[in-house]
């Protein structure tokens, strides 16, 4: 029996990816249908300090002492131990699982780090706030992704829809009306750091054009915030389509993303765009409740490898 069992949800960005790296706002929501979990099993018969890590989904098994400091599991565990002020923990086995697709813009790495941080601080008896969890997870994210904006660790640690700007306190979004979303995976994977680096190169070569695009995305995101709160489908859909056009200008769309976006719109979505780093990964489409099923079916028929539906309600994501 584990003494500790923690969970962290996936996430999806609704507006503002890439521009958020350059100081513009973005909107993200947690996705509870997928999650990362961590379980701690104390091993009474082993010597103190003996920490084993197992991730059966990826056939991973190791001792903490054998992992390099920049290994994401090891980094999360060590940061949590440091936070708890414990050098030599009682022996335990940490079992990590995740249903969040990897490299698909759904926050898999941040969710795993957060599940681990919650599990280890819990096991060591040190309470931790959502902000503190997010800050530790950001350190792990930096090891893996270079200089991420921090949106993933924030939305996942707080488990609430957020309006996020780099270096500003996060603003939770209190939605008043339910909206329905369909997330579809192209099955193609490009690591986020690759598309972020490409956008960085283009921005360096032509700052004027790219700053202009980032500013337009920022403006769309600010408008979307209000439409999301009131659940204005037509306005939100229009803003998503505009955001997608600008992401395409940034060079982060792809034929497979465009194909699924087009399919979603044809099947009745109010709007659709890529989500996350792009050049593969997921699209997100906005739907009325009645059309969700037909959009889901159309996307699967068009070749989506996985479709997840989620609703954003007054009480949070469902
Ligand atoms: O691919 P994801 O979901 O981790 O999202 C990346 C979002 C970017 O804005 C492209 C990068 C970032 O650090 O915010």
List the quaternary state of the chains. Answer: single chain
Q: Order of SSEs, N→C? A: EEEEHEHHHEEEHHHHEEHEE
| Distance separating the two termini | 29 Å
Q: Using the 3D structure, state the CATH architecture of the largest domain.
A: 2-Layer Sandwich
Q: Quick one: how many beta strands?
A: 12
Rg measurement, Å: 20 Å
CATH class assignment of the largest domain: Alpha Beta
Query: What name does CATH use for the topology of the largest domain?
Result: Ribosomal Protein S5, domain 2
Mean pLDDT, all residues: 95
Q: Structural class, judged by helices and strands?
A: alpha+beta
Helix content: 40-55%
| Percentage of β-strand residues | 15-25%
Biggest sheet layout: 7 strands, mixed
Number of domains: 2
Number of helices: 9
Distinct ligands: (3R)-3-hydroxy-3-methyl-5-(phosphonooxy)pentanoic acid
Which ranges are low-confidence, i.e. pLDDT below 50, for 5 or more consecutive residues?
A: none
Principal-axes shape call? globular
Q: How would you portray this structure in words?
A:
- The structure is a single chain.
- This protein starts with a strand and ends with a strand.
- Helix content is 41%, strand content 25%.
- Strands 1, 2, 3, 4, 5, 6 and 7 form a 7-stranded mixed β-sheet that branches. Strands 9-10-8-11-12 form a 5-stranded antiparallel β-sheet.
- The longest helix is centred in the C-terminal third of the chain and has 24 residues, at 207-230.
- The protein folds into 2 domains: 4-164, Ribosomal Protein S5, domain 2 (2-Layer Sandwich); 175-317, Alpha-Beta Plaits (2-Layer Sandwich), CATH 3.30.70.
- A hairpin with a 2-residue loop joins strand 11 and strand 12.
- It is globular.
- By secondary structure, the protein is α+β, with helices and mostly antiparallel strands.
- Bound molecules: (3R)-3-hydroxy-3-methyl-5-(phosphonooxy)pentanoic acid.
- (3R)-3-hydroxy-3-methyl-5-(phosphonooxy)pentanoic acid (PMV) is lined by residues 13, 17-18, 20-21, 105, 107, 148-149, 151-152, 192, 196, 276-277.
